[in-house]
Design brief:
The structure is a homodimer of 416-residue chains. Chain A has helices at residues 16-31, 46-57, 63-70, 72-87, 119-128, 154-165, 199-207, 215-224, 286-296, 326-335, 337-340, 367-377, 401-411; strands at 3-8, 35-40, 92-95, 102-104, 113-116, 131-135, 138-141, 147-149, 170-175, 196-198, 228-232, 249-252, 265-281, 304-306, 314-322, 344-357, 382-388, 391-397. Chain A is an alpha/beta fold and 416 residues long. The first copy, chain A, has an 8-stranded mixed sheet with strand order 3-6-2-1-9-11-12-10, sandwiched between helices. A 6-stranded antiparallel sheet of chain A has the order 14-15-13-16-18-17. In chain A, helix 6 (154-165) runs parallel beside helix 8 (215-224). Chain A binds chain B through residues 16, 19-20, 50, 53-54, 56-62, 64-69, 71-73, 75-76, 78-80, 82-84, 86-87, 93-94, 96, 98-99, 145-147, and chain B through 16, 19-20, 50, 53-54, 56-62, 64-69, 71-73, 75-76, 78-84, 86-87, 93-94, 96, 98-99, 145-147.
Amino acid sequence: MARLVMKFGGTSVADIDRIRNVAHHVKREVDAGHEVAVVVSAMSGKTNELVGWCKAAAPLHDAREYDAVVASGEQVTSGLLAITLEGIGVNARSWQGWQLPILTSNAHGSARILDVNGTELIKRFKERKEVAVVSGFQGIHKDTGRITTLGRGGSDTSAVAVAAAIHADRCDIYTDVDGVYTTDPRVVPRARRLDKIAFEEMLELASLGAKVLQVRSVELGMVHKVRIFVRSSFDKPEDIDPHGNPPGTLICDEEDIVEQQVVTGIAFSKDEAQISVRHVPDKPGVAAAIFGPLADASINVDMIVQNVSADNATTDLTFTVPAADYQRSVGVLNKAKGTIGFDHLDGSTDVAKVSVIGIGMRSHAGVAAQAFAALAKRNINIRAITTSEIKFSVLIDAEYTELAVRTLHSLYGLDK
Amino acid sequence: MARLVMKFGGTSVADIDRIRNVAHHVKREVDAGHEVAVVVSAMSGKTNELVGWCKAAAPLHDAREYDAVVASGEQVTSGLLAITLEGIGVNARSWQGWQLPILTSNAHGSARILDVNGTELIKRFKERKEVAVVSGFQGIHKDTGRITTLGRGGSDTSAVAVAAAIHADRCDIYTDVDGVYTTDPRVVPRARRLDKIAFEEMLELASLGAKVLQVRSVELGMVHKVRIFVRSSFDKPEDIDPHGNPPGTLICDEEDIVEQQVVTGIAFSKDEAQISVRHVPDKPGVAAAIFGPLADASINVDMIVQNVSADNATTDLTFTVPAADYQRSVGVLNKAKGTIGFDHLDGSTDVAKVSVIGIGMRSHAGVAAQAFAALAKRNINIRAITTSEIKFSVLIDAEYTELAVRTLHSLYGLDK
């Protein structure tokens, strides 16, 4: 007997038929003798509809009211799943964020979970063999008692937080893909599904644009050591292996992965823009003069490269911002031109960031150097490079994205 | 300065444009210096959609889960209206049933309001000039903490209960008609809107099928002396009289109505079925033998007429049941034939009940007799009669309904 959290996203609960499919997944685990808490998202399309109404009601809406409106989507799904479960003979009840409660910060629209009370759920597992159906994506602010939401993908975080609170053996994330891949299979058909991936690698992958899990949920899993299993809601009997294991990816501690690859995955993002500030004085304080005003404008600067100046007097500074913030960034910099003292700006939104991730990099030198050589051989120009302990990223022309991803995928032996 | 509750039904908040219209109604009252609590229903169609999903999920659904699902409709509207109000500069916040709280019984699906806490609303009227936007139709069970709903039309009851809790000067019910009429204007074009109607009369009208207000809301208004004003959400400037009063009907204490008519209104219902039990033994206990089994089957018996028996041995008993329960009633009676000892049953679903209501009947004799004469003159056969202190009802063939209503409407001087 194990204690499980099962999380189902919007496409998995899109209509009553799919909710029925979810109920059968739950019944299977209950019949196997497990204690189960289910976390559900809103039916797909519903959150967008609710958000659309909020925007139509007033362009600048109160985030607390926005949260009250959009949280209703998960409330509907949790009630419907409880009804469906009872209809097939499984004892169940729904729990809204405020009922458990799931206490959060008051950052409405992107609140952080502070505490989940799992006592009542555990009691009901024991006394009534009752499945808990918890509304994902939502909580209640601990002081004001108002409904909060956790931001897009927040139900993943709800699931991991509930798993931590009830000391679950595993948190199963049922989604419309059957696991985490070495890279996007739409770009690289030879991408492989990973059996296991370490929390830190998954954190990088999620941060770099792999949309499988909300970043915060992986952080929470890492901190509370919640094993997260990503699998498909729609797998068929023939997908199950002879030992009864469905396809999927386990996100776990580094130590639980016996054969660690040097490189685990390749991520990429085209939502980047590059800005180069030309001929700035090469003296202390210039970086602050550039990045201070951008930070004040809440613009997230990512890769930063400063060339060594040739004349010892001026230098060039290149960095990336989200493509959506490109025009605004240029405006902010031009306004600060007097303080910064640059000659001119140039930039491009036609760039992409390709990242190579692997815990093995820690103990293997020269991993990045191989990539630079392979890309050069393909005539792909690298505009900027950043590295960290377990990943490195290169900024390239957007048109080379797919070629670069495929090249690196082969280079590091990730092809199946 | 007054303190007002304003209630808006589903058609009044059907989309964002209509919610904006509602917001302007609220702003008008706020600008006039009033303290305002708004009670809203779900956007029209939403409750039906949610109910449909519950039924599709499982035919016999847990009423507690059903309530969690359907209560989400009002949650959406309250948040959207709060956003819209803030968008036009009116301080506002939404309140769900569990937040105020609105405590109810645990009769999920048709719960009764037990208590509404208005303290926080009054405090915020004073300290922040904040409009309270309260989700109608819902509450929370006082012990279990689960969401309850009040049944169809429950938002009317929410509005009156909130009005009682905050000691409102008036509860304005905005709806898609502009008041309470002497009878259904679709049947009698000369029906007049009533300026005022007494609680007791309104209670009879609502119970007899006039769909303007939920019966329970009128009861609550009567008990707590909440003046209820029924008016249209869609009235135009030219509808307002020179004193600034919009068209509508005030439901108030009998004493507040200076010129009380003998008859106030005519109600009718075609959802009736008549059953006659022929040749039952005319002895004590026979009524119990008939109506006991029907009550056990939760069938609501309405009009009952027992003829005086001619032979002192057997008699005929005629009564009405809801048309939907007709077949079931016949089944129940046939099953109990041995105990009751009747000869045979006959009946019809092709009947209608026409009711005449007026507090003035208390002090005026012969009101019903005039009706019997007028109907006889039109060759309308009366199958059964019941009377109470302030109303009487006749059961007639359904095909004569409109003629009977028009005849009585003229007879009592209700035509405009």
